[in-house]
Amino acid sequence: MATLDKIRKQSVLLLVVVGLALLAFIVGDLVNSSAAFFSESSANVAEINGKNVKIRSYMEAIDQMTEVYKMEIGEAAIDDKITDQIHQSVWDMTVRDNILMRETKAINMTVSEAELYDLIMGKNIDMMISSRRMFFNPETNSFDPALVAQFRKMIDSDHPNPNISLEQLNQWKSYWKFWEDQVRMGRLEAKYGKLLYNLLVVNSLDAKNSYNNQKTTVDFVYATKPYLTLPDSVYTASNRELKALYNKKKEQFKQEASRDLKYVIFYIEPSDEDFANAEQWINELKPQFETTTEIGSLTNANSDVTYKGENLSKDAVDADFRDFAFSGKKDDCMGPLFVNNTYKMARIVETGIMLPDSVKLRHILVQQDTEEKTQLLADSIEKAIKEGADFAVMAQTYSKMSQTATKGGEIGWVKEADLENEMAEKVMKASVNEVFQMKGSYGIQILQVMERAAETPKVKLAILERKVVPSSATQAKIFQRAKQFAYENNTPEKLEKSALEQGLSCRPISSLDINQTRVANLKNSRQIVRWAFKNEVNTVSDIFECDDKIIVAAITGANEKGYRDLESVKDFLLNEIRRDKKAEAIKQEMSGKQIADFVADVAAGYTVDTLRGITFNTPYAGSVGREPELFALASMANQGQLSQPVKGVMGVYVFNVFNKVVSDQSFDKEAEVSDLTRAHYMLPYLGMDVLKKAANIEDLRYKYF
């Protein structure tokens, strides 16, 4: 029933605070199909610091999260983008929890039951509980701890409410356990983070050093010559120099296994014949569409757009027909039009309608084990309300829709488009406070309109529409062309050359990770990632169907887990060696010269400028950007004395301080300690990052997903 879908959407509790995942459907069949699959030797999805993470427990946690997610947003299907994000979040949470539990166990750090109670039922309720919409009081639209207590009582009772099914009760219990576990882990992480924060103590020497680094401010004139003014060809590096620098910086070149690809896209698009057929189709139907007395049947039998007999406001009407719809009369037609690869025409079915755009609605969903019992209970509830019973209390007591029952049955503001035709007709015309019943496949709903928006003009409009899509014959031709291309171009070089000749898009992608869920922005492209890690370099694929595209890929490089080789980082190393050699050359060139000499030698690539207000701690300044060594040396230099050449990030500098101010503000130890302590707020997060980097993690997700 459409109204129930609307109810669920209106009662979104909150997108999951701790991004987790829902992978169960992807591998559910594997769980049931082979017990051997989950043997001790092959059932691990990861190994973290020597501890195995079992795929079964991993999936059980995901199953629980899946149900929570459904209850939160009221949707059974999740798009690829959200699924990818959730997959990654589940992995991140698994790694974090395993590392955190290991570290806290080693120091006997736990979350006591008293702490947990305080966070979910006490005076310091965690945001993960207080932000749940189901615990909001509908009258105040704010969190109500009493609703938490009521919910706990409901799920923990030895004598549960007979109006709540066992299945629904178990869902609520699982829902609560999930959030309770999240609160517990969140508190544990906060305690560990506070421990790390408190470990770093700011002493008097730190405070004095911070004070000294800020009390001196200098203004100086400087001359600089950028490295890019010297030609690269003059400054080269020997293999010995490259190897020495590579060994020195080797830890920077750690890498996970990855692949480099090139791929060609064949777009599955309609042909000229497809466009001609669509145009012929709408022109042939036009006379019948303009004259038929069965406009709904004709439209729904032929159009991409369903005619529901809805009363449409101006904003709800297709923009291409808006002026026509509200200026024409009954049975007037417009079109065909061709817009965005779509042929369409419209006919006014009814005009002169005045109704509100939306109404504020509340309801009670009644369900019993037979239709007779359901009708009897619904009649009894309706009668009681009409005789003065509190609608909100009746909803909390009898409604089977728990999401709204806790809010006194309130759905909120709904539009006509959110409702089924019969219900929309009844609801939109009902007066404020009117109580009435509507039957549906879910049971019987007792509804009451709480408020009505202002009435606006509306129309009923039928639209005959067809988007031009590739026919089966067109798709077959595209598939055949792609397969022929893959067969004829069996090396990466041939693939790229042929793509260029045929005007096809050939795109590179580097460092493709083994667990990556897609290639670039290609939908349903996980299959390409799997293929890339199962084949050798220079292999060209068969075709992959990725939504509305056909892909032919070639493996151009394979990077194994470990360290990048010298050849792959040669350009980086060469640039660093060149910079060092250029710096030495510029230093020699600058030696013995004054600022005035550089002013006169602009043609040689020198720039002379002034910087003001520089301290030891200055991060960026003027046109030079980030030059920490220059700023530090300038802040400590003697006034009026030309410096020695300074090797910087972008070039070599000499400077002369012409103004130096030492602050007369006295040293305030407490203030400096306070400032430095505040600067440590990121330590807990950085600490967890360090632990993750130091952990021994074997990621085996690729075996299952």
Protein architecture, described:
- The chain has 705 residues and is an alpha+beta fold.
- It folds into five domains: 2-197, no CATH class; 216-254 and 568-662, Chitinase A, domain 3; 261-269 and 471-560, Chitinase A, domain 3; 272-355, no CATH class; 358-453, Roll (Chitinase A, domain 3), CATH 3.10.50.40.
- The protein has 25 helices and 22 strands.
- The strands form seven sheets. It has a four-stranded antiparallel sheet. Strands 15-7-17-16 form a four-stranded antiparallel sheet, with helices on both faces. A four-stranded antiparallel sheet has the order 11-10-13-12, sandwiched between helices.
- Strand 3 and strand 4 (142-143) form a beta hairpin.
- Helix 10 (239-248) packs across helix 21.
- It is extended and about 100 Å long.
- The two termini are 35 Å apart.
- Mean pLDDT is 87; it is low at 1-41.
